[in-house]
Amino acid sequence: MRVVIVNNIPAPYFDPVFKILGERAEWNLTVCYTSSWNQQAGWVEAPPEESSYRVVILDRKGSGISAGYRLLRELLNIRPEFLIIYGYTLIPQCLSITWSILTGTPYALIGDANVYADKPSGVKGAVRNTWLRFVIRRARALIAIGTANRLFWERYGARYEQLFSAPYAVDNEHFKHEATKAKSQLPETVEKTVFLFAGRFIERKNVDLIIGAFRSINSDDVSLIIVGDGPERERLEALGSDDERILFAGAVPQADLPRYYAISDCLVLPAANEPWGLVVNEAMSCGLAVIIHKECGAAIDLVTSENGVLLESFEQAELERAMQKVSKDPVKLAAMKAMSLERISGWTIDGAARGIIEAVEASIGGEQPSKREAVIGEVK
Asked: Would you say the C-alpha torsion 8, 285, 19, 36 has a positive or negative sign?
């Protein structure tokens, strides 16, 4: 079966899933990325020649019109029998949906939209809502990456028989292995609780909140590592410049991130409007506890009081209390770290691929919902 996937910018966590799809599903798979590769993140430009699927970059300059034109040529040439579309608002994605409807080609929608971050407003929001309800009604399948995403689809009229689960995942074994290897190479150090932030320095990540809360902790038994880069870097570095317990590591390639997970105890992510947060998956795979805002996409599925702290607000005092709670009880912290490893073990790349295959095959074959489970991931 000829299957086309339309996605945005390539990321390291897509290739393992798509590779499994190309190997296991009886598909002739083409993945069309709408924009050029993100070199700043250190991502590879293309899968190896022996890859199980074909890759097309629609436009390296990020032009939606140009990408849409190239996509139309690909669709005319391939004549796909099924489309898997990541998103529903950009020009190539809208073109894919329109193509599917006009030609009668079945399609599935997938994305990381989060019901808690969904706050449409004004005329633009009304137009988007009308379009979203329309494309959901016409979709053969809606693939949910987690509970918050599933609730998003349901908010806009998703029917039970349309919903399939493909948990948002990273290569757990890779991160666990690399972090374990890095730990074995570390010298003996004074025991401290090490907090970690890893991500882009943009306003909604609330890195300034982390710095403020950490600075309020009057203890030499804690430290904070901040990994990343972005437009707020200069301001954030100024906020933490006079505290020797805070280390700014700068931008770090994904391949080197396990080294920082290895020396850390707790990931901190008080971000607002966070669709998911794959850094949580990575950190838990490396055995870290997690402090996260309850409305981050990953929070509802991956974090409980057993492996971290769910923040109710964006107040510095609450975050400070959470960090104090984690750092003052080494026994509890060790239990949290162990529970992170246990909880993330069922949230796998293999599960994500199986969910996508099931969505395509069941929606074509007309499988009844009573014959499958409509649950998220494998975490109970």
From this structure: positive
